[in-house]
RNA sequence: GGUCCUGUGGCCGAGUGGCUUAGGCAAUGGUCUGCAAAACCAUCUACAGCAGUUCGAAUCUGCUCGGGACCUCCA
């Protein structure tokens, strides 16, 4: 399927409209997603955003685009809170634990990669770090100063929001008015350096006790909170690129500031399509490191948590997320996860049966129309829940063919198999649940023997023995199913 | 306080002017089976409240009530 034949529509946060997607360079897409701050374990809410954009990346690839997917690692430069003005998050943690800052960064970066790999996320093409792009950030600040949109004060550099707003619209993304923002500003330390409370730091002067700092034209310091994404997206995707994504909570001020920085430095709008993934909630509230309302992936996979009480496979969690649209809030609960797990297994069962079903001369079902529905769903702003609904329609049809109630032609079977594999495995990024325990040769031999014995018992109508064997196997996580041709088994 | 989003059946979750029986899970009845399991068939519960616009609204508008996000690091 070629991207040209598809009218992919994207809900653009910048305009608030669902727009037909046109890339700047035909056939190529530049995609930037704000990555994690690697100073603590990535939690499940963080994962949702990255999984959402993984599907978006995968679908763009499926449509035939050549995508450059850039996702940063924030390993420096974020303020802790107003009480500890100017202190770098990573530096703070380092002092507490008596580790080198880069030791912390390394540890949580590895953890981040491991978790996303468990969710079967594809790696981005470039994963730049903030500390690796200090020079680019300094250069960008110099451009902004030169263009008159920033000023220096005591070794720090601030973005002049009001100046910028004279010729541009600060607040266009988050739909805020500059007057309202001024009214709602809190008093922060270091504000006396700023011309306006709305101004944000591009470069912060580092105090002597500060660990992570770099030389700059304004003295020793560290880059501001929003600058790294602007510098790195510009470097790898250009001054204007196609899609910028991130979590909804980054819309303001982070992304608003990125637009301002990019425009101030380069004179052009940095991004055509802004996309925002919504929050994953727990107990109805946003998951958040600072409030402690979180669930770690490891706790979920191991079952070692109070929220759910049992373990879930990462792919089941991924499927659960696919059943909601990326732009909607999704609440996490054991009940919802259980129902997803059952549905997921049913879908996977249909995937396996599809390979084996018999074909007929004609199909009794509009297979081509069904496949078109897969595309229509994804073309409509990556509507994965609708896609999943159609995949279940396909599963129902596959089961019906298997029972002889419906028919499928050879060529339709080929098309459906191809499409199902593409959408289930390549686009949604699902995988068949692992069955490695069942692929053991000696176990196969033993099971063959056991089932033969059970079959004899059944032929003798010795139901007690037959059922006892089945129950015992069940306890050992081996499920036996009887059908017309005998019994099948699988490891749970 | 300001800005914005949201309220769908037992649960999750799409849809957005007229027929979507959305879909998944659960429940009930049935087919199949020695019994199960699986699968299939059928049934069931709905659009927060009030008012308005309209031939027609769950879908648009207003108000009320509830929930959430952002305004401070946050996916």
Keywords:
492 residues; alpha/beta; Rossmann fold; Isoleucyl-tRNA Synthetase, Domain 1; 3 domains; four-stranded parallel β-sheet; four-stranded antiparallel β-sheet; 16 helices; 15 strands; 14% strand; elongated; RNA-binding
Describe the fold and architecture.
With 492 residues, this protein is α/β, with parallel strands linked by helices. It has 3 domains: 24-277, Rossmann fold (3-Layer(aba) Sandwich), CATH 3.40.50.620; 281-427, Isoleucyl-tRNA Synthetase, Domain 1; 436-491, no CATH class. It has 16 helices and 15 strands. The protein has helices at residues 44-62, 89-97, 101-118, 134-146, 161-167, 178-183, 227-237, 251-266, 297-302, 314-322, 334-356, 367-379, 384-402, 410-427, 441-459, 463-475; strands at 9-12, 17-20, 28-33, 66-71, 150-153, 156-159, 200-205, 221-223, 241-247, 271-277, 280-282, 285-286, 330-332, 478-483, 486-491. It has a 4-stranded parallel sheet with strand order 4-3-9-10, with helices on both faces. Strands 5-6-7-8 form a 4-stranded antiparallel sheet, covered by helices on one side. Strands 12-11-13 form a 3-stranded mixed sheet. The protein is elongated, with a radius of gyration of 27 Å. It binds one RNA strand of 75 nucleotides through α1, α6, α8, β12 and α11.
Assigned CATH class of the largest domain: Alpha Beta
Number of domains: 3
Number of helices: 16
The CATH homologous superfamily of the largest domain: HUPs
Taking the sheet with the most strands, its summary is:
4 strands, parallel
């Amino acid at each position: 399927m070629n991207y040209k034949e598809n009218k992919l529509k994207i809900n653009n946060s910048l305009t608030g409209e669902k727009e037909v997607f046109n890339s700047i360079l035909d056939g190529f897409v530049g995609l930037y997603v704000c990555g994690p701050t690697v100073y603590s374990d990535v939690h499940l809410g963080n994962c949702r955003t990255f999984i959402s954009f993984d599907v978006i990346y995968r679908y763009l690839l499926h449509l035939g685009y050549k995508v450059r997917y850039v996702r940063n690692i924030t390993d420096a430069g974020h303020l802790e809170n107003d009480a500890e003005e100017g202190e770098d998050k990573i530096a703070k943690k380092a002092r507490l634990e008596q580790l080198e800052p880069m030791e912390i960064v390394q540890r949580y970066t590895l953890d981040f990669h491991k978790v996303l790999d468990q969710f079967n996320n594809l790696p981005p093409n470039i994963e730049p770090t903030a500390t690796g792009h200090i020079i680019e950030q300094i250069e960008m600040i110099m451009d902004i100063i030169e263009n008159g949109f920033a000023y220096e004060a005591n070794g720090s550099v601030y973005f002049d929001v009001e100046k910028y707003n004279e010729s541009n619209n600060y607040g266009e993304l988050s739909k805020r008015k500059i007057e309202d923002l001024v009214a709602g500003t809190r008093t922060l330390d270091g504000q006396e350096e700023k011309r306006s409370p709305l101004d944000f730091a591009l470069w912060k002067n580092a105090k002597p006790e500060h660990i992570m700092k770099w030389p700059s034209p304004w003295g020793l310091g560290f880059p501001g909170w929003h600058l790294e994404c602007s510098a790195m997206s510009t470097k790898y995707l250009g001054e204007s690129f196609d899609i910028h994504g991130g979590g909804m909570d980054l819309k303001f001020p982070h992304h608003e500031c990125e637009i301002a920085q990019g425009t101030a430095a380069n004179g052009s709008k940095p991004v055509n399509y802004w996309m925002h993934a919504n929050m994953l909630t727990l107990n109805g509230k946003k998951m958040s490191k600072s409030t402690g309302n979180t669930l770690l992936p490891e706790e979920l996979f191991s079952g070692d948590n109070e929220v759910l009480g049992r373990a879930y496979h990462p792919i089941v969690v991924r499927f659960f997320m696919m059943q909601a649209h990326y732009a909607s809030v999704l609440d996490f609960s054991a009940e919802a996860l259980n129902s997803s797990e059952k549905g997921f297994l049913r879908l996977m069962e249909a995937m396996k049966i599809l390979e084996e079903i018999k074909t007929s001369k004609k199909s009794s079902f509009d297979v081509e129309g069904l496949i078109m529905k897969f595309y229509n769903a994804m073309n409509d702003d990556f509507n994965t829940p609708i896609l999943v609904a159609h995949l279940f329609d396909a599963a129902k049809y596959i089961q019906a063919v298997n029972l002889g109630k419906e028919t499928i032609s050879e060529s339709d079977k080929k098309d459906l198999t191809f499409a199902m594999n593409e959408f289930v495995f390549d686009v949604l990024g699902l995988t068949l649940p692992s069955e490695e325990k069942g692929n053991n040769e000696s176990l196969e031999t033993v099971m063959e023997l056991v089932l033969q014995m059970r079959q004899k018992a059944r032929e003798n109508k010795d139901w007690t023995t037959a059922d006892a064997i089945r129950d015992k196997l069940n306890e050992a996580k081996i499920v036996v199913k009887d059908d017309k041709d005998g019994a099948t088994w699988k490891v749970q």
